[in-house]
Amino acid sequence: MSDTLRKRFNDYVNDLFVEEDDILKFVRDETQRLGLPLINLDPFEGQMMKVLVAMTGAKKIVEVGTLAGYSGIWIARGLPADGKLITIEKSGKHADISRTHFEKAGVSGQVTVYQGAGMDILNKIASDAPYDMLFIDADKSNYGNYLNWAAEHLRIGGTVMAHNAFWGGNIFDPQTEDDHGLVAFNQALADHPQLMSTIIEVGDGLAVGVKTG
Ligand SMILES: C[S@@+](CC[C@H](N)C(=O)[O-])C[C@H]1O[C@@H](n2cnc3c(N)ncnc32)[C@H](O)[C@@H]1O
Fold first, then answer.
1. Is residue 161 lining ligand 1, measured as CB closer than 6 Å?
2. Which domain holds residue 41?
């Protein structure tokens, strides 16, 4: 498929389906205004996450990497009324900002922000397993550790998802620790005996694995 046609398809889907409202736009603008890194999902990926959450019927979701809460709002909007999202953020500043945004988006009753390092918090909440979904969008060198946690703590039929599976193309010529983290993660996901997996070609690549055993 030509790049031109691919872009037209993307624009077509974007115009028809992507529901980025004023609150989500505000969160994106605030991310920039407050000087946070602009590394959140794009609206197209956000819509995909919302649909996947609703499609899988996930009610008990964990996210690693909250930033300003942009992806968390999309995820929360895919949850049923009794669904819950735990989102983990290492930076105290990001965690505080995200709490304000979850409040503003009217989803704070369904979202709990834990401030701390991903693996530390995941180990703390492991006693409440099984979970329905883990969404990984934080430090790339730990993606493999988050994957192992998911294989152990998701229910059968639960889903692990990871943002940046294509890592802007750096998976083809890995140089940094983060690049190698992504390459190793994708390989581990492909080889994992308990997971049926693929990468959805949306945005920077959304890796998805369903726990089968
Ligand atoms: C790519 S951003 C998350 C974007 C967010 N998911 C979104 O789309 O709106 C990554 C976030 O992970 C946080 N982070 C980095 N290392 C972490 C760790 N070890 N544990 C938890 N969070 C971490 C960063 O502070 C940053 O806010």
1. no
2. 3-211
Q: Looking at ligand 1, which atom is closest to the CA of residue 72?
A: 9
Question: Is 81 in contact with 70 (CB distance < 8 Å)?
Answer: no
Burial of 158 (0-12, 13-18, 19+ CB in 10 A): buried
CB 118 within 8 Å of CB 146: yes
What CATH number corresponds to the domain at position 83?
Answer: 3.40.50.150
Number of compact structural domains in the chain: 1
Closest Cα to atom 26 of ligand 1: 67
- C-alpha span between 45 and 74 (Å, rounded): 9
Q: With 0.90 as the threshold, say if the pTM is over it.
A: yes
| 117 CB near ligand 1 (under 6 Å) | yes
> Per residue in 141-173, pLDDT tens?
999 999 999 999 999 999 999 999 999 999 999
Residue 138 Cβ inside 6 Å of ligand 1? The answer reads yes
Which residues have a Cβ under 8 Å from the Cβ of 16 and sit 6 or more positions away?
none
Q: How far is the CA of 191 from the centre of ligand 1 (A)?
A: 26
- DSSP per-residue codes, 86-128: EEEES-HHHHHHHHHHHHHTT-TTTEEEEES-HHHHHHHHGGG
